[in-house]
Write a structure and sequence with these properties.
Order of helices and strands of chain A: HHEHEEEEHHEEHEEHEEH
Mean pLDDT of chain A: 91
Radius of gyration of chain A: 18 Å
Shape of chain A: globular
Number of strands of chain A: 11
Oligomer: homodimer
Largest sheet of chain A: 7 strands, antiparallel
Chain lengths: 282, 282
């Protein structure tokens, strides 16, 4: 995730804002920066929009690969209102920045997608690691890339996702170096957060999952693994986006990295919203 | 679930069979009885088959209501082979008994669906409470209806599922009376089994969830709640079937009650198969 350093004061101004209020500012194009740090305590989400004819296969891909693809909400075809996760919001205008891909190529980056909207578009909201990193920090576990103000390092692994229809590809993981004394706690904390990737998929030896050089991540920035620390690898939300792009759909729209959708779901309610009885976010 | 009392000896003969061997016997129509007790240690599954044009909405319904609708596997349109949960099996022949519904009405009950198969049929395998009851028993928690050789009591509640497309309806729950000392353990044991309904959705006062008379279940058989016991209510797999039937699809095929599909997934691996890294059942 990009961090909008120049927006730091503005971000702090919006840390306590309600999601509804913040989305209205985004909708009126007064906010175009990354969303890390705004509306603290509310879950942010990745966005993937696909035509209906690909939506079933993409949802099956997500169901078959729940760790990299934790679905928070699926909007019905043509519907831009996330009626459960953010009633009254509009998925076409309420993210600060969108990416438009055609046949797998980035074609455009823009601040709304109103004029691109199709009646057959199905929107997927997918869990974001912001919620999960906040829980690690709250548990007293250091998060290196946050400390260093960098993007998390991400790697393509030799773990193949279960394919579904046209969607297939390797799992992408993010890495956080964890002190040996804190590994068990980091597992406990994240295992309880299935809605945002859950427990690590691998801990220790990077080469076992096909990572040749931990200092050369495929995405994001490298971070040092210090003496006494073990690299822990979590399934990463880049996985479904990469799989979708590899399928070269005629059109696909996503958020721009770091420019997320802010839901009405409190982080503390996210697990129950996704894995429990549900209801509508308040 | 019906229990095939007259098949008890036969069931015991098949308790240690491999799923592959048992399915071949079912396929050759030598076994037509309920499946409780066969292939012990392997997960059994509910089956729902729907035409592709309803499949996306049904899967969204399941994703929105994961406690009553825990998806174990989704087969691609027209594909009768559960390539992940039971590679080489055939969903059209490998269940002992099927029900065929047209526009929500039961039309036929039969031992295979080969001649009804359509290229656009999507098959859903949904978690079954057998796995979950075995874990309760293994943890030393009594399961009343099993003790009494009855079907579990099931009730329609006032908890509304989140609708998706044409699919909507109330949550159906099953009830097991649990001694006060064992409630916490029963929650722990089942909370770890998200692939088969997870933790109870309600414990105690039946009237709060719209159950007027605990002695009059809508499905299954009543069981006594003894002194010192609390009724615990779990989301029930009847919910998605009832919601699907209420939508009156042109055609829908399910297993007959108690006549389940035996997967290659060991009960102990079920959570990881469904919620973890997946892979293919071995």
């Amino acid at each position: 995730m990009e961090r909008g350093e120049s927006q730091l004061n503005a971000t702090q101004d919006w840390a306590d804002a309600s999601p509804r209020r913040f989305r209205s500012i985004v909708r009126s194009a007064q906010w175009t920066a990354p969303t890390a740090g705004v509306c603290m305590g509310y879950a942010q989400a990745n966005l993937v929009v696909l035509p209906a004819r690909l939506a079933m296969d993409f949802l099956v891909f997500a169901v078959r690969n729940p760790k990299p693809c934790p679905i928070i909400d699926v909007l019905e075809a043509g519907c831009p209102d996330p009626a459960y996760s953010a009633p009254g919001a509009d998925i076409r205008t309420d993210l600060p920045r969108y990416r438009v891909y055609r046949r797998g190529q980035l074609e455009d980056e823009r601040s709304d997608i109103v004029d691109l909207w199709q009646d057959d578009f199905v929107s997927f909201l997918i869990g974001c690691s912001f919620s999960f990193e906040k829980s690690l920090l709250d548990a007293g576990i250091p998060v290196r890339h946050v400390e260093l103000g960098r993007n998390v390092p991400m790697y393509i692994t030799n773990i193949q996702c279960r394919p579904a229809g046209v969607f297939r590809g390797p799992m992408v993981v993010s890495m956080r170096p964890i002190p040996g004394r804190a590994i068990a706690r980091a597992v406990e904390v994240t295992a309880a957060m299935r809605a945002v990737h859950g427990a690590p998929v691998h801990i220790g030896s990077p080469e076992v999952i096909g990572i040749a050089d931990i200092d050369c991540p495929e995405f994001g920035d490298p971070v040092p693994v210090n003496e006494g620390e073990i690299p822990a690898f979590w399934a990463c939300g880049v996985t479904p986006q990469a799989a979708a792009l590899a399928a070269k759909p005629e059109i696909m729209i996503t958020h721009s990295p770091g420019h997320m959708f802010i839901t009405d779901i409190r982080d503390r309610d996210l697990h129950d919203f996704v894995c429990g009885l549900g209801g509508t976010a308040k």
